[in-house]
């Protein structure tokens, strides 16, 4: 394959990574923004989403589309409820102290991971995509009569990958609308800006925190459900995803949804392209180097505000 | 009537209030005076339920509000204008007021009335709170508290750092609330402001009430100010 079509193929892989990463990192960023909790267990919520997608799809056993749609609805709900329960039973009792919540969420990480290993096992299991047509993509070349389109062999995308990109975009747009256009968003932003004043104006901050922690986890779980027809569900899949999410959130600026999306596209695309042309390890090295540069030259991140 | 009865409160292991008792009556301005660190702001926070009480109780019209969860306290009709304004800085003027309106919640005509009191805010509804001038921010903090139609209004140094015309505007609103029967608890450093508008003065020292006086008496016996404030 020529360089051009090869690059397009790599860019599509990158866009899928970016879409899933943006969803997951948006959840991490939301939780940190509103609650100031660095959620180390966030990757496990992503893993739980993927594992639950397999559980739901294989329990229903019906048409793949039906199982997948059911998983898309059920898995984020269950994971969100688990996270909200963890918030009320653990994080609340620590008074959301920044250091102690890190240790607590590390504990939560291992509990969720080991419970999954005990219940689900060490295998990687696939979920059938609801639809998976292959679409051949055209490329341009200079022929005898000027610019011509042709269909290079192997240059294609599946409809499911396009769906993942579209679904992530739609969910992120919905999240943005929730935060800026609704009463719930107003309450969450007020709590984020000044929790004590939110209480003094009748906002039940504890309930907001439980809801935000649940919502953040549900976003990670949704990312897990979307990726499982491409990647398979495995009990250790949360680790790499957590690392990339932290990279995205640090580069984008903690608490900024726009920054998170921009950084996810940057990291996802470079990860996809560099992985295809060089090696996945080099992609991670470059992403980590980028974080170092951001921390040195723009510690608040691309779109974050400097502390006042 | 808001009554504090022998309350102890503080920040973690540091006890600030020691058996503090005071009363704020409807249609009166009760002013808390005391040196820095005496416990004036802590008293305000304790009333709002933001600090746990280790002893004593706080009642509003006979209802014990000190056992309520903190977010239920403002729903009983207590509006808080904190020191340093503490606006929701990235939200617009309209959104800050909306949060005040949602507390109980208040009928829409309340917002109209509040904006009549502060016409400058009506022109800036879409502006972010952090972009307002200091005086406008204080107006917004006051308006936000008035949006919940308070029976009790807590004002913590409302005139700090404001120019005289703004101080006068805030003072007029406070006096108007008083005439409408709101119980007002005021922390104020500027004695001239206290003397001209307060009905009762409570002196606080080391987290305890040392003395109570009618403002009229205080004008006749200024030596009390010297004793508790050193001025």
TrEMBL record, chain A:
Transmembrane segments: 6-33, 45-62, 68-90, 102-121, 160-179, 209-230, 242-267, 273-297
Record InterPro entries: ABC_transp_permease, BCAA_transport_permease
Compartment(s) of residence: Cell membrane
Record-linked CDD domains: TM_PBP1_LivH_like
Molecular function as annotated in GO: transmembrane transporter activity
Topological type in the membrane: Multi-pass membrane protein
GO process terms (BP): amino acid transport
GO cellular component annotations of the record: plasma membrane
Keyword Transport: yes
Annotated keywords: Amino-acid transport, Cell membrane, Membrane, Transmembrane, Transmembrane helix, Transport
PANTHER family assigned to the protein according to its UniProt record, in alphabetical order: ABC TRANSPORTER ATP-BINDING PROTEIN, BRANCHED-CHAIN AMINO ACID TRANSPORT SYSTEM PERMEASE PROTEIN LIVH
Similarity comment text for this entry: Belongs to the binding-protein-dependent transport system permease family. LivHM subfamily.
UniProt name for this protein: Amino acid/amide ABC transporter membrane protein 1 (HAAT family)
Organism: Rhodovulum marinum
Automatic annotation (TrEMBL), chain B:
Nucleotide-binding is among the record's keywords: yes
Keyword terms, alphabetized: Amino-acid transport, ATP-binding, Nucleotide-binding, Transport
GO molecular function: ATP binding; ATP hydrolysis activity; branched-chain amino acid transmembrane transporter activity
Domain ABC transporter: 2-231
Chain coiled-coil ranges: none
CDD domains linked: ABC_TM1139_LivF_branched
Highest taxon of the lineage: Bacteria
InterPro entries per the UniProt record, alphabetical: AAA+_ATPase, ABC_transporter-like_ATP-bd, BCAA_Transport_ATP-bd_LivF, P-loop_NTPase
GO BP, sorted A to Z: L-amino acid transport
Any Pfam family: ABC_tran
Residue intervals passing through the bilayer: none
Signal peptide start-end: none
Family affiliation: Belongs to the ABC transporter superfamily.
Protein name as catalogued: Amino acid/amide ABC transporter ATP-binding protein 2 (HAAT family)
């Amino acid at each position: 394959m020529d360089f051009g079509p090869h690059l397009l193929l790599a860019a599509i892989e990158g866009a899928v990574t970016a879409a899933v990463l943006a969803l997951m990192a948006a959840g991490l960023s939301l939780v940190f923004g509103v609650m100031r909790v660095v959620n180390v267990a966030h990757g496990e919520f992503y893993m739980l989403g993927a594992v639950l997608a397999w559980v739901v799809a294989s329990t229903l056993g019906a048409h793949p589309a039906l199982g997948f749609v059911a998983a898309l609805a059920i898995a984020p709900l269950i994971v969100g409820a688990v996270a909200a329960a963890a918030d009320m039973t653990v994080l609340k009792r620590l008074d959301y102290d920044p250091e102690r919540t890190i240790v607590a969420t590390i504990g939560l990480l291992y509990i969720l991971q080991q419970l999954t290993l005990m219940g689900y096992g060490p295998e990687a299991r696939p979920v059938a995509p609801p639809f998976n047509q292959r679409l051949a993509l055209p490329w341009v070349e200079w022929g005898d009569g000027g610019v011509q389109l042709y269909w290079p062999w192997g240059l294609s995308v599946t409809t499911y990958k396009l769906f993942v990109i579209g679904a992530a975009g739609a969910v992120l747009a919905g999240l943005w609308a929730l935060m800026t256009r609704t009463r719930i968003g107003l309450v969450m932003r007020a709590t984020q800006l000044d929790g004590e004043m939110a209480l003094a104006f009748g906002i039940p901050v504890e309930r907001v925190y439980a809801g935000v922690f649940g919502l953040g986890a549900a976003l990670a779980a949704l990312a897990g459900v979307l990726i499982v027809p491409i990647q398979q569900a495995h009990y250790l899949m949360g680790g790499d995803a957590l690392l990339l999410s932290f990279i995205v959130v640090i580069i984008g600026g903690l608490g900024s949804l726009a920054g998170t999306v921009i950084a996810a596209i940057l990291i996802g695309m470079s990860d996809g392209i560099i992985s295809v042309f060089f090696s996945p390890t080099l992609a991670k090295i470059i992403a980590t180097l980028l974080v170092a540069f951001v921390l040195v030259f723009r510690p608040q991140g691309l779109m974050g505000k400097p502390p006042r | 009537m808001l009554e504090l009865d022998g309350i102890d409160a503080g920040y973690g292991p540091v006890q600030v209030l020691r058996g503090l008792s005071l009363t704020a009556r409807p249609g009166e301005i009760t002013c808390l005076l005391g040196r820095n660190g005496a416990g004036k702001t802590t008293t305000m926070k304790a009333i709002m339920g933001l600090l746990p009480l280790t002893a004593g109780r706080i009642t509003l019209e006979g209802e014990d509000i000190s056992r309520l969860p903190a977010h239920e306290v403002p729903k009983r009709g207590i509006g808080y204008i904190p020191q340093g304004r503490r606006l929701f800085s990235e939200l617009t003027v309209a959104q800050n007021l909306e949060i005040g309106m949602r507390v109980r919640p208040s009928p829409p005509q309340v917002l109209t009335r509040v904006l009549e009191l502060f016409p400058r805010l009506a022109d800036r509804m879409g502006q972010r709170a952090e972009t307002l001038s200091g005086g406008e921010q204080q107006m917004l903090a006051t308006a936000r508290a008035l949006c919940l139609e308070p029976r009790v209004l807590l004002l913590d140094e409302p005139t700090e750092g404001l120019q005289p015309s703004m101080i006068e505007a805030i003072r007029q609103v406070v006096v108007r609330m008083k005439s409408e029967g709101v119980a007002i608890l005021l922390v104020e450093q500027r004695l001239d402001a206290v003397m001209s508008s307060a009905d009762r003065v409570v002196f606080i020292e080391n987290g305890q009430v040392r003395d109570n006086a009618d403002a009229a008496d205080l004008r006749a016996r200024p030596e009390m100010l010297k004793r508790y404030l050193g001025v």
